[in-house]
Amino acid sequence: MTEYLLIDLDTERWxxxxxxxxxxxxxxxxxxxxxxxxxxxxxxxQPIIDPEKYEFTFSPDPAYCRILEFYCPGCAxxxxxxxxxxxxxxTVDMLWDIASLRAQWEQRATDxxxxxTYGPGEDVQRHTHTPPQTPISx
Length: 138
Ligand SMILES: [Zn+2]
What we know:
Elements: E1 5-8, E2 13-16, E3 22-25, E4 35-39, H1 41-44, E5 66-71, E6 78-84, H2 98-108, H3 112-115, H4 124-128
Antiparallel strand pairs: 1-2, 2-3, 4-5, 5-6
Bound molecules: zinc ion.
């Protein structure tokens, strides 16, 4: 679904593509299964001009903006970030019709993990899935 998130269509669970951590029901928001770091935006976007001289420095005001970083509790991979007003709950950025996804992949008769190989590095398949065992021929 993203570089670091997949949906297991058999179990209908959100999983980490790096460590297979289970983030929860794929019919819901994966962010509920993540660790959240509520960042002061000034840590990310430091003032460009002197804050002693100017009221507005091109650095976000933490009274109006927070940066939420979402991490996998299994491997500490940063899954997502978002900018929200202070106190705003995490947004829902993906809701999927799991039955429809499953039907589409069944119609293709292809393993989605073979067909879609983008992810955390070229060797994501090696880290997330056991390669098919091929007999050694002599
Ligand atoms: Zn992980």
